[in-house]
User: What shape does this take?
Amino acid sequence: MSSTDRIDWRSIFSLSSMAYTILGVFSALVALQGFMIPNHFLDGGITGISILMEEIFHIPFSVCLILFNLPFIFVGYKKIGKTFSVNAFLAVILLAVLMTFITFPQITSDKVLIAVFGGFFIGLGIGLVIRGGGVIDGLEIIAHYTNKRIGFSTSEIILTFNTLLFIGAAFEFGIETAMYSILVYFTAMKTSDYVVDGFEEFTALTIISKEFETVKSVIVNDFGKAITVYKGERGYLPSSFEIKQDCDIVMTIVTRIELHRIKEVIKELDPNAFFYVQRIKEVKGGLGKHNTMQH
Assistant: This one.
């Protein structure tokens, strides 16, 4: 039986998972009651459509949140993993219950502050719940599954859904509020990305330099990073196409915090060094997280 075929109750009720989920749900509660709902601001996804349904049809937000999330959680249960879906269901239920029985005072009516801090707290909540193993917005689940079925990327699916949602918000609340809601969504998205990936999101740094031997030594010995070396050629400039030299092309995987320091040191060694940087979503194997990969 695979891990997706059984529910890992120990993981669901572990201290870290519960702490992330509770903190995330409470952060979302602050965002919704303290900033967004009293001022008719929306987030994207199921949270946004639940706010919209409450405003238009006066159906309680908590009821909409559960009803709209259930089909997506069911898809996740069948296609992604049972433990994940149980975590998601518990997070949604907890948020719905807290929204019903806890009243948090409105913090501000300033639209810019609502957009920035409302987005920050809802994004923080989403990110923490994801770190806990679940979600509070089922749209992420269906986008992931639909991506595999019809070929559209997750970002394209979510963007299409949220575009329709914000158009609806423009008709109900006015264009200005809809525009601020887009800012809420953007802030939330960026915040949740940082919470999930952290400041140690990995980046591939490739360096082409005439001082390649020194560059290799600095990265490995001074910064303690593993490297990959490709054999290549440098040169081929528009003004001197026929001039070229053999060189080692050095690639290493670093965090965003380390990236700037390494680039500055290499620029001192070779002011004409050529860099290019690629974002990496995940790194596995080799020497592990802190020393990146073994090549």
In short: The first helix runs from residue 9 to 12. Residues 288-295 have pLDDT under 50 and may be disordered. DSSP finds eleven helices and four strands in the chain.
